[in-house]
Amino acid sequence: MEEITLKMRNRLRIASTAVDAEIVDNINTAKLDLERIGLSSASIDLGDELVFTACELYCKYMFNFEGEGESYLSRYQKFRDALSMSGDYYE
Q1: C-beta of residue 62 within 8 angstroms of C-beta of residue 12
Q2: Which residues contact 61 (CB under 8 A, 6 or more apart)?
Q3: In the 8-state DSSP scheme, what is residue 5?
């Protein structure tokens, strides 16, 4: 998870490790949300760039990235919903 946290920190343009626990919590929350809407837990792999991007959009929403948090929430929801319609992410 350390590699994923570093990658997410870079995407959020955060140099400090002070918020790593919060980043991990937000990633886990996004993964649970993806599972909640129907993606199989086996398909929610952070090595999958689409899944990682969904988590990134969620984190940018939660951190109000560049003051555009609400915009990132909308993007996350649309992206998440698109993933939920793809047969590749169901058991």
Answers
A1: no
A2: 69, 70, 72, 73, 76
A3: H
- Coil, strand or helix: which one is 91? coil
Distance of CA 18 to the CA centre of its chain: 19
Q: Residue 19: count other Cβ atoms within 10 Å of its Cβ.
A: 16
- Alpha-carbon distance of 58 to 33, in angstroms, equals 10
1-49 pLDDT per residue, tens:
899 999 999 999 999 999 999 999 999 999 999 999 999 999 999 999 9
Question: How far is 57 from 85, CA to CA, in rounded Å?
Answer: 18
Do the Cβ atoms of 51 and 84 come closer than 8 Å? no
- pTM exceeding 0.90: yes
43, 88 contact by CB (below 8 A): yes
